[in-house]
Amino acid sequence: MSISIGIHDLSFATGEFVLPHTALADYNGTEIGKYHVGIGQQSMSIPAADEDIVTLAATAAAPIIARHGSDRIRTVVFATESSIDQAKSAGVYVHSLLGLPSATRVVELKQACYGATAALQFAIGLVRRDPAQQVLVIASDVSKYELDSPGEATQGAAAVAMLVSLDPALVRIEDPSGLFTADVMDFWRPNYLNTALVDGHESINAYLQAVEGTWKDYTEQGGRALEEFAAFCYHQPFTKMAYKAHTHLLNYNGQDTDKDAIAQAIGLTTAYNRVMGNSYTASVYLALASLLDQADDLTGKPIGFLSYGSGSVAEFFAGTVVAGYRDRLRTEANQEAIARRRPVDYAGYRDLHERSFPTDGGDYATEEQTTGPFRLSGISGHKRIYQAR
Ligand code: HMG
């Protein structure tokens, strides 16, 4: 019998501020239906001047360490595509902020929004090798497109932390996986840019091709039949994308695309992403949190996961929800992370969007804005300085 490994705990954090899409629409004259219905977004999280992927990640992971301790964690894998350093893993800062043991390996992983799924799969491999160990997987990103570009409506920020272990309390991750890689330039960010470049419509096509490709491989590898899944968690750059993807999957399988059935399969996965926006690597796992927090009992039911990262790499895999999972959920804290955000007006958002540290090598202090437990207090001697508050 194969051993059970998967997600033992999941916690997330998001930015200090929230920009409603009504504010963006008022500014650029867009009919609000395009945002609320056309792309399925209500608002987006905006990090404070003293927040970044490290502070979000530490905030997401701290409750996991508080609940489980760190004795069994020997690996931290930090997935991001908004990296803050070309050499040092952002995970090392988190390791320090959380006081994790020195006998830990810490590494950063990148492949656009797919990175966290690679981290999860690598973590499962490590736990399989030594089932006594746990792996802390962190997905943390700040999504930024150029101001006044079509991508602007699909920004956001969040971090998800997951503890991967033997006999998980939430979701057992199954074999096989369906895999897909294609060299496409649908979305990328050269080292000299703070914002991503994207061919928006091409990126949607590339995502749909990846849905097909992963499903084909998943089936060939002996995966479950489509009808077996109780729900599907898709990567959600905007929530309408999950609807497009699922419709495409049904079409590809020659199945009916009944609106109610599609809503039943993915509706509950979209609530958090709809109000936080694109959180890149974290997005598909926020979909899981949203599903688990809202659905009627899912015990024993398989969930399909479709993780897509531009460029592109994608994976389809299944997870089965574990008996007793509801006692381990963090529903109240999750809802609080969203509700506690402070509204920012359009001018305030624009100001935050355009901020970055000067590149002259000087020392700079960051304005104190976040009310979260960790902050980026500034830069000194080319080093980022973080503080627990
Ligand atoms: P756009 O050109 O501004 O919007 O770009 P549009 O004209 O395509 O309209 C969007 C939808 O709104 C359309 O619906 C319109 O009909 C509808 P669709 O035809 O798609 O079903 N619409 C309305 N609906 C109701 N009332 C109205 C109304 N007006 C129009 N009044 C786009 C939209 C998403 C392309 C843009 O925001 C963008 O470029 N975003 C960034 C790229 C992106 O998110 N791509 C998704 C796939 S790639 C991916 O997921 C990876 C990624 O996360 C990165 C990574 O992996 O790291 C991005």
- Mean model confidence by pLDDT: 97
Q: What summary fits the major beta sheet?
A: 9 strands, mixed
Adjacency order of strands in the biggest sheet:
5-4-6-7-1-8-13-12-11
- The coarse overall form would be globular
- pLDDT < 50 stretches: none
Order of secondary-structure elements: EEHHEHEHEHEEEEEHEHHHHEEHEHEEE
Number of helices: 12
- CATH 4th-level superfamily: Thiolase/Chalcone synthase
**How many independent structural domains?**
1
What fold name stands as the CATH topology? Peroxisomal Thiolase, Chain A, domain 1
The number of strands is 17
Helix content: 25-40%
Task: Please specify the SSE layout and strand pairing.
Elements: E1 5-14, E2 17-20, H1 21-28, H2 32-39, E3 43-46, H3 53-68, E4 73-79, H4 90-97, E5 105-109, H5 115-129, E6 134-143, E7 156-166, E8 171-181, E9 187-188, E10 197-198, H6 200-220, E11 231-234, H7 239-252, H8 259-266, H9 271-276, H10 283-294, E12 302-309, E13 313-321, H11 331-339, E14 342-343, H12 346-354, E15 364-365, E16 374-380, E17 383-388
Helix pairs in contact: 3-4, 6-7
The structure holds 3-hydroxy-3-methylglutaryl-coenzyme A (HMG).
